[in-house]
Each structure stands twice: as structure tokens, then as C-alpha cells.
Amino acid sequence: MMKKECIAMILAGGQGSRLGILTKRLAKPAVPFGGKYRIIDFTLSNCANSDIDTVGVLTQYKPLVLNSYIGIGRSWNLDRRNGGVTVLPPYVKEQGGEWYKGTANAIYQNIDFIDQHNPENVLVLSGDHIYKMDYGPMLEDHKKRNADATIAVIEVPWEETSRFGIMNTDDLGQIIEFEEKPLHAKNNLASMGIYIFKWSVLKKYLIEDEQTLGSHHDFGKNIIPTMLLRGQRLYAYRFCGYWKDVGTIESFWEANMDLLSDNPQLDLYDPHWRIYSVNPTQPPNYIAPNAKIRRSLINEGCLILGEVENSVIFPGVYVGAGAKIRNSVIMPYVKIGANVCIEKAIVGEASIIRKGCFVGCKDLDDFYFHGDPNYGKITVIGENMDIPRGTVIENGAMVSSED
Amino acid sequence: MSLMMGIINNTKNGNQLKELTENRYMASVPFGGRYRMIDFVLSNMVNSGIRNVGILVQGKYRSLMDHLRSGKEWDLDRKRDGLFILPPAYNNCPLGMQKGDLDNFYANLEYLQKSRQKYVVISGANMVCNINYQQVLQMHQQKQADITIIYTEELGEVHDASKSTFIYTTSSGRVVDLEINPITQRSNKISMEMYILERTLLIDIIDECISKGGYDFVMDGILKNLQRYKIYGHHHPGYVGRIHSVQSYYRHNMDLLNSEIWEEVFLRSGLIYTKVKDQAPVKYMEHAVVKNALVANGCVINGSVENSVLFRGVRIHKGAKLRNCIILQNCVIGEDAELENVILDKEVHVSAEKQLAGLKEYPIIVEKKSRI
């Protein structure tokens, strides 16, 4: 097979347990986002738009939705004769076989896959970040500097440095120190979990790390520090732009709300950097004569008879007459009955909220009293729920089925 | 394997939609916010289990090819069967254009001979509807018909009678007479210009007509054979939008603003597939006031829109007002511009504060890529 310059490995096995009932049935990268997408669409589209044509997707936790969603990669233009997308779950070997124990171990278990493509470099990505990035210039920098590894970094607010892996570099961008979640950071350049490695070098370290007792088999905790210690050439690549790890219910909700401002940092309408996704084949949305819609994203197949404000509505949603939805994220194929009020909530796929329910508010007065998106907690309703008529689901509640 | 194959006949309905058909044939005229006319018949065929579709083309078919490409969106990129574009063979007619559609059928006879399905569904591309041909085939077989013509019954006066084909049937459904484009309407049964017949019979009809100097499938193949073949009518009870004039184009686009019709055409039985453009969801901004509108993805709306259909990627700036408009893909409406009863073809830019108004019966059409 022809030698590839760079192939991508997307880590998509995480449960995302802090997303609570949103990841009950699917892995975090498969969680719907932005009225149309699943989180992994951003990384896959970045690959497609950066002309990376060989992508391995490492799955583990509840992979059914993700596997069938990715398919042969057609939606991202990754159905290629030579390369394309390959879903890589853990598998059984002669000596047993095991789950992916950490990010580095996941790549280690797929050394054969990478060797088969015989790439010069391997790009390691996370499948659960929301951002638009051209990996091309990063790869150019990596080659120009003859780096063993290049790590993408982004400036984060100083007060948040203790949540990230912080890179300390010299003037030329070479990494001299790496601190995982430091209490007193020396700078505010955080690792984005995006790495380009020289494959020949990485392979050596992966094999060695696998033999190391007590290792977490993790890039941030083990591979990078060991490489630094041995004096390998590690460089930082600075990324400017929108980047968000939607790890919690709050950050997931916020990232959706971020899209509603007049000029959001993350531009979904750029014809030169399309975010691809699987098309649900739905007609244009229909807005009825008495509907009111402001500051919202609404996808195709929606039938809106009521009022929608400051919300993100996925495809195929029905909003009945007199219903009021504000500061909320409504997932695909949700049916919302007449006169339902929903305030600051996330409603899971295909749920039915019957007539006259109040979600995230007690009654109509309470609904009118609210309105400030920063006020109150986020209410979450799981998928495939059927909320009977007139139910009141109070602010901050989490509702999901038993199983 | 499905018993049926499909032929979409796009050789008729040339320049009926004025500016909209200047550079495209009926089949690739944009319709309903994100579709082209051919999507309806093609999706109906695919949803009826048909996996072998030939498209007869003539004249300006570049935009059609661009739309269909490999047939991927309709799942017609198959190893066996799939999508076939059937171009004309102009060497049969020195003037470059054929008189009717039979020459095209004849030029592609080999495709019909090589196909394996027993029955053929023939349809034009100017009907907006959601129909399952499986049911029509069942009736065709029950009646042991040679040819089945699908029709609708219209109450009251029909628009564009002179562009329609009317049929007369007995109580058992047998077609006894046919009138093509009469000036005055005498029957309330209008053909949907969709036919089912056996493939071998179609080949025979084409061969025989051509050898007798015929040129039109319906005129020579069906009308002249009313006595000879058992021809039955199949009544389609659902919604049908017949597009053969600017007025009907405008009216049937507006029909989709009735949520009943919207659901029937797009969601109730089969889905309507089209070329995917991967556009973001519609963004309704701070000053958006939208009432009774059909809006496709990729639109960004900050003005007021009423009784209108917006195609993909339309930008409506602050203060702009639209009423009773059909705005095709990627148009931009500047601040405080006002449009009423207007059809904008693709990529038209209307600059700030411009006003444009047509009449409901005679909407203004603005040509592709115009700057106003």
C-alpha cells in the first residue's frame, strides 16, 4: 500500500459519565449537538476538510449508535478505496485480549492497523471536542521542526489552568515542561488533546509503556512526560479559535447556547469549512402563522406552532400551539404538546411531553418570571420518555427511565 | 428483486417556467425549499422498491446531471441496476432536437432490452406527490391490464387544462378515451402522466410506433391503441401538484405552507431524498419575525418573512420584509428591502432598501445571479 504521510486516530471510547443521562445509551462522541450534529462530526469534518483520508475511530463504551452512525464514512467523504474510516473496537487475541485501558493503550492495541497504512506521522484526536481546526498547518510545523511530537495548545483563562495539562515552552515553541493540572501554573497554554507523533518514535514508546508496571497507559500522564524526560523533540502548536470540551451537562448546554449569539465564535455557516453529518432526509422546517421564533437554531423537519426563544431545536421536532420554549436544547423527534412551557432544559431524543406540562418552571407565572438564561439550574429529560399531561418537572430535575 | 423498473421522461416540458427553465429542464427546477422536481418521482420510485431507473434527457441537462451524479442520495449507486442517464441520439434528426419522446426511447432501446424487471413505471418529472407504485402494480395485475394510467380526480375547474391530459373511464376503470391538452375541460379525471406496463410491451410499442413514423409515446403509443390494449385507470387519492406554468409553480410551492400537505408530501409514506448540502440548521436571529413559512437549512434570518418558501442558504438581513415570496438557494436580501409576490432564482442579491412587488397571479421572476 502507498505510504501515507499522516493518518488520524480518534479516541471515541469514553463514557462521558458527567453527561449523566445524556450518555445512558450512547458514547459521548455520539451525543447530539448544535441542532444537527453529533459531537464526533466536528472531529471527522476537521479530518475531511484537512485532507486526511485515513481515520481510525476507537470505540468502546456503548458503541452501537456511534458505529451505525459512522458506517463507511460516506457522510464525511471518508468512503475511500485506499484508507477511509475504520471503526476499531477492542478485540480478542490469542492471549486473551482486553478492554482499552487508557488512551495510549488504545493506540497500542491498534499498532497493526497503523502499520498497515505505514504512515510517517499519526495524528491522535479526541472524539468529544467541539472545534474547527485545519490540521494541515500543524502537520507542516511538525515536519519543518523535525519534531518527534507536536501538541496543539490553546490559551485558557488563568483561573482555569488547574483543570488542564499545561505546557511550558521556550521562545521557539519547544516544550520544556509539562504539568498536569497544576495548582500554580507558569503559563496558560493548555493541551487540547491533539497530538501529531512521528510514528516510528511513538510506536517505540507505546511498546515500552505497555511493559511499564503501574502506568496509566495515558498520553498526558505517561507517554508525553516520558518522551520529555528522554529529551525527545516536543513542540507546541498554538491554536486560536473556539474549542470546547463538552464534558458536563452545564458545558454541553452552554456550548449549544454559544451558537445563538449574533456572531458566534464557532461559525457553522462557513461554506469553506462545512461540518458534515448524517443527513436525516427531512423537509424544510414549517413555521405556522401564530408561531414566534427568536434567537434560535431550528433544523429541518420541525413543525413549529408555538413560541421558541433562545433555543436549539434538532430535526423532526413538533412544537404544539401555545407551547413556549426558552433557553433549551430539544433533541431529534421530540413531540411537545400544546401549552407546554419549557425553561432551560435539555429534552432527550424522541421524548413526548404531553399537553400542559411545565418543565424547568412551576407554572406560567414562574415561566414569565424566569428568562435570564443564567438563572436557575438545567433540567434534563432523558430519551424516549413519555411525560403525561399536566406534569410539572421542577427546575434542576433529571428525569429518565429506570432501566 | 423488484418486479418494476422506472423510466423518468424528462424530454417534455421544455421552457414552461420562463426564466426558471432558461438554463434547466423541468426535472431540475428547484421546488419546495430544498428539492428539485425530479426528487419527487425518483424518491417515489425508490420508496416503491424500484432499484433500476433510467432517465431520458434532452436539451439542457447539465444541472440535472450535477444534481443526480452517481445516484448516491437515492441509494441508486448499485453494482447491478441503479441509475442510468439515457441521452438522445441526435444523429437521427439533423435539426438537433427531436419532435417527440419516442426517438429518445428508441435510441435507448438496448437499455430496456437488457433490464431484467418485468414491469416498467414511466413518469414525467413535473408532478409533486408522494405515491407508492407497488399499490398501482397490484391493481394492474388484478385487472390484468396491459397498461395502467394513474390519474387524479379534480373537483371544480382545473388550472392549465390546455397543458393536461384528461381520461375517460368506464365504471370498472377501463380507459375509453383520452384527450391531450384540450382547451376546454370535459372530464374531471386528469392523468398524472404515469404509466405501468410490461417491459416487453413497451419495447413492442416503441418499435411499432417508430416504424410507422410515430414520435410521441402517449399520442402514438397509447391514444391510437385504446381499442387494442386493455388500458385501465388507477385513481390516486392524494395531493398532486402539477407544475407546467409559473402560476402553478408558485401556487404549489405555496401549497406546502399548509401543514397537512407538507406532512403528506414529505413525511407520511416515503421520504423525499435530494442532494445533501450539509448546511447548518436555520438561524433565527434577534429581529426575526417569521409566520407561515417553509425554511430550509443554511438560512440566516434577521428580518420578517410571511407566507414564503426559503431555499437553502438564504440570508435575510435586518429590517427586510418578505411576503408571498419564493426565494431560491443562496439569495441575499439586504437591510430594509421589501419583496412581495416575487420569485428569486438562485444567488440573486437584492441590495438594501430596494422594493419589488409582483401580483399574486403574476409573480415577478428574477433571473439567476441578478443584482438588484
Automatic annotation (TrEMBL), chain A:
Q: Where is this site: Could play a key role in the communication between the regulatory and the substrate sites?
A: 60, 99
Ranges for domain Nucleotidyl transferase: 8-260
Give any Pfam family that matches.
Hexapep_GlmU
Q: In which pathway does it act?
A: Glycan biosynthesis; glycogen biosynthesis
Q: Which UniProt keywords apply?
A: ATP-binding, Carbohydrate metabolism, Glycogen biosynthesis, Glycogen metabolism, Nucleotide-binding, Nucleotidyltransferase, Transferase
Which top-level group of life is the source organism from?
A: Bacteria
E.C. designation(s):
2.7.7.27
Catalytic reactions on record: alpha-D-glucose 1-phosphate + ATP + H(+) = ADP-alpha-D-glucose + diphosphate
Q: Which GO terms describe its molecular function?
A: ATP binding; glucose-1-phosphate adenylyltransferase activity
Xref: Gene3D superfamilies: Hexapeptide repeat proteins, Spore Coat Polysaccharide Biosynthesis Protein SpsA, Chain A
For this protein, the record's PROSITE patterns field holds: ADP_GLC_PYROPHOSPH_1, ADP_GLC_PYROPHOSPH_2, ADP_GLC_PYROPHOSPH_3
Q: Which GO terms describe its biological process?
A: glycogen biosynthetic process
What function does this protein fulfil?
Involved in the biosynthesis of ADP-glucose, a building block required for the elongation reactions to produce glycogen. Catalyzes the reaction between ATP and alpha-D-glucose 1-phosphate (G1P) to produce pyrophosphate and ADP-Glc.
Oligomeric and partner information = Homotetramer.
Return the protein name.
Answer: Glucose-1-phosphate adenylyltransferase
From TrEMBL, chain B:
Domain named Nucleotidyl transferase: which ranges?
Answer: 13-238
What does the record list as GO biological process? glycogen biosynthetic process
Give TM segment ranges.
none
Domain named Glucose-1-phosphate adenylyltransferase/Bifunctional protein GlmU-like C-terminal hexapeptide is located at: 286-355
GO MF, one example: glucose-1-phosphate adenylyltransferase activity
> Which CDD domains does this entry report, sorted A to Z?
ADP_Glucose_PP, LbH_G1P_AT_C
UniProtKB keywords = Glycogen biosynthesis, Nucleotidyltransferase, Transferase
Which family does the record claim for this protein? Belongs to the bacterial/plant glucose-1-phosphate adenylyltransferase family.
Name the chain's protein. Answer: Glucose-1-phosphate adenylyltransferase
